[in-house]
Design a protein that fits this description.
Helix content is 22%, strand content 31%. It has six helices and 15 strands. Helix 1 (18-29) runs parallel beside helix 4 (129-142). The longest helix has 14 residues, at 129-142.
């Protein structure tokens, strides 16, 4: 039977030895492991951005995939290492909130604190626990060692709270969650929320405000806009995105994660 897929996500970059060390550790324990890179370029130490990238990708992987997530500004501290089993997947990560969004999305079966040193490398380092503790656990889990072997179950773990978008009269208030490689600004406002308001209130016009700029161009896709045009649209994640066709909305607006967005609907009179 094929080994479970192990999907790696870190903030290590690819210039140094870190990622290769993770893969070597896994393959030494399970030479048949199937390793896939999600990304190693999430912003350094940015737990929420990492949580969002994981949330955006995990559901497209095969069932029983093991996600090894190492974005760990608290490495070597008393923070726990977690092994979470959901209805469809497994997740190994530091207890710093990086699993918050996926745990909301996929039904939890159990969450355990990884403590069994039997599954660690000998003499683990306090500065590279991803290699010495987490990667070996992922490898043994890929060989179908039961979750119960790795440590005791826990009911308390750290969560990163995300403020939900709010509807106030004819406005939706939200914020920028993430800036992608193209400079698109991904917000926390679901496209369905906007679509619902448009239908319910017989909206004639809709606009988006961010960084004191009003954007009037609400499109179905990027190609509907002119080159260099600032627009907003429902993106592939089902969230409202702000973009510039063949350009960067981030650079044009000087916007960043956390900035407020306001979507205003105007009804027919």
């Amino acid at each position: 039977m094929a080994s479970r897929v192990i999907a790696l996500m870190t903030d290590f970059g690819k210039e140094d030895f870190f990622v290769a060390s993770l893969k070597g550790t896994i393959l030494k324990i399970n030479p048949l492991a199937r390793i896939v890179d999600i990304t190693h370029r999430v912003p350094s130490f940015d737990v929420f951005a990492s949580s969002f990238v994981l949330f955006s990708t995990f559901q497209y992987f095969p069932l029983q995939t093991i996600f090894l997530v190492i974005v760990d500004p608290g490495v070597g501290s008393s923070r726990k290492i977690l092994l979470a089993e959901t209805k469809n997947y497994f997740f190994i990560a530091p207890d710093n909130g990086v699993l918050s969004l996926v745990i909301e999305k996929d039904e939890i079966k159990q969450i355990r604190k990884v403590t069994n040193e039997k599954f660690f490398l000998p003499n683990p380092s306090s500065t590279f626990e991803g290699r010495d503790k987490m990667a070996p656990v992922a490898a043994w889990l890929s060989k179908e060692v039961p979750c119960e072997e790795f440590g005791h179950e826990v009911s308390h773990y750290k969560k990163v709270s995300e403020k939900r978008p709010q509807v106030r009269g004819n406005e939706i208030l939200g914020r920028i969650l993430y800036v992608d490689k193209f400079g698109n600004l991904i917000t926390n406002v679901p496209f369905q929320m906007v679509d619902f308001l448009r239908e319910k209130r017989n909206v004639e016009m809709i606009s988006l405000f961010v960084k004191n700029t009003e954007i009037l161009s609400f499109k179905k896709n990027y190609s509907s806009a002119k080159k260099g045009e600032l627009l907003f649209l429902g993106g592939s994640l089902g969230l409202i995105e702000i973009a510039v066709r063949e350009g960067s909305a981030c650079e044009k607006l000087k916007a960043e994660t956390g900035d407020e967005v306001r979507i205003i609907t105007r009804c027919e009179t």
